[in-house]
Design brief:
Shape: globular
Largest sheet: 6 strands, antiparallel
Pfam families: PrmA, PRMT_C
EC number: 2.1.1.319
Enzyme class: transferase
Structural class: alpha/beta
Protein name: Protein arginine N-methyltransferase PRMT10
Number of strands: 15
Subunit structure: Ring-like homodimer.
CATH topology of the largest domain: Rossmann fold
């Protein structure tokens, strides 16, 4: 999730970051196939926060598009390419890795923009354009910003095809984290305990009915269920009141200069002050992106797209919630100090692993209830 189309995949070795090669067939099966369906495009196109941000960014900053060449990375239905053309672009190259390109091409023609927009089916890493472009536009953001690794393809496009004076839409991004309270922590713990109770009943039935002792599998089953219920981050649209501490920025990205290595492994230390007496049930992560242009060619009106819990009705991205088990009692004025690390999964480069290592500190300086946990963003 998290794109107007999908970020083209390819071999991520070489000048774009030096990370491991990706099997294109496996990558397509795991990721791209989802974006080839109109129902998924409709879900994203129905996100008004998302749509309004991109629409306003383009039409409030027409000077970046008027008479310019534009590259839309992962065009999906083609909506960003169409808006770019409507804002006055001379030429728009709309790159799409799936058969959604056929729908995009039909939509472009239905809006009489086929003389301006050229839809190209293929991976961004494999596409060759006849010219450099003035603008690269893309909605590359996944859950907690970097899940899906689509920004890799945007970086590739930028390094290959953006003019030295070109602009990126969006131009900047930030990742945030904050402590939260949530009944999900208790629910997931209960779900895990229920799964283990069911397993033990299964062992007894199998032994009594079929004469086979399967208890040797209890440990791997418990590890499997623990990962699913207690270590996998959750999608949620949180209410602002569930945020119990000051939010902190854990990563800032300049889309004009960031490299794949900059985002492949993130490490940050942050602190948060607890605002009330409650339980620390975990942490929430979200992001915002900004359309600022570049220093030499700024936006006439800067637009922000945020997925924070404060957004009315939320977005399709929601927030990623990382639950602690058990929850920790906290009090107004406590400091929560956290060491945050996020790396790409070894099994699937589009998924992430997050490690939180922290402690709660009382105003008196006393320490209590340290915590450390690894999570999977899947």
């Amino acid at each position: 999730m998290g794109s107007f189309g999908n970020g083209p995949a390819g071999d991520r070795t070489g000048p774009f970051g030096g990370v491991a090669a990706v099997d294109k067939g496996v990558d397509f099966a795991n990721y791209f196939c989802t974006y080839a369906f109109l129902y998924h495009q409709k879900e994203m196109l129905s996100d008004r926060v998302r749509m309004d941000a991109y629409y306003n960014a383009i039409f409030e900053n027409k000077h970046h598009f008027l008479g310019k060449t534009v590259l839309d990375v992962g065009t999906g239905s083609g909506i960003l390419a169409i808006w770019s053309a409507q804002a006055g672009a001379r030429k728009v190259y709309a790159v799409e890795a799936t058969k959604m390109s056929e729908h995009a091409r039909a939509l472009v023609k239905a809006n009489n923009l086929q003389d301006v927009i050229e839809v190209i089916e293929g991976s961004m890493e494999d596409v060759s354009l006849p010219e450099k472009v003035d603008v690269i536009i893309s909605e590359w953001m996944g859950y907690f910003l970097l899940r899906e690794s689509m920004f890799d393809s945007v970086i590739c496009a930028r390094d290959c095809w953006l003019k030295p004076t070109g602009v990126m839409y969006p131009s900047h991004a930030r990742m945030w984290m904050a402590p939260v309270r949530s009944g999900l922590a208790d629910q997931k713990s209960n779900d895990y305990e229920g799964a283990m109770d069911d397993w033990h009943c299964f062992l007894e039935d199998t032994r009594n009915c079929y004469g086979v002792d399967m208890s040797i599998l209890t440990k791997p089953f418990a590890e499997e269920q623990k990962k699913w219920y207690l270590q996998t981050s959750l999608w949620n649209n949180l209410h602002p009141n569930q945020v119990i501490g000051t939010p902190a920025t854990v990563k800032e990205i300049d889309c004009l200069t960031a490299t794949v290595n900059d985002i492949a492994e993130l490490r940050s230390n942050f602190s948060s002050v607890i605002k009330c007496n409650t339980r620390l049930c975990g942490f929430s992560g979200w992001f915002d992106v900004h359309f600022r242009g570049r220093m030499e060619d700024p936006a006439q009106k800067e637009i922000e797209l945020t997925t924070a819990p404060s957004v009315d009705n939320g977005t399709h991205w929601g927030q990623q919630v990382f639950l602690l088990n058990p929850a920790i009692p906290v009090y107004e004025g406590d400091d929560v100090d956290v060491s945050f690390a996020m790396t790409r999964s070894k099994d699937n480069h589009r998924l992430m692993e997050v490690e939180l290592d922290g402690r709660v500190k009382q105003p008196s300086g006393n320490l209590f209830q340290p915590f450390r946990k690894t999570f999977f963003v899947e």
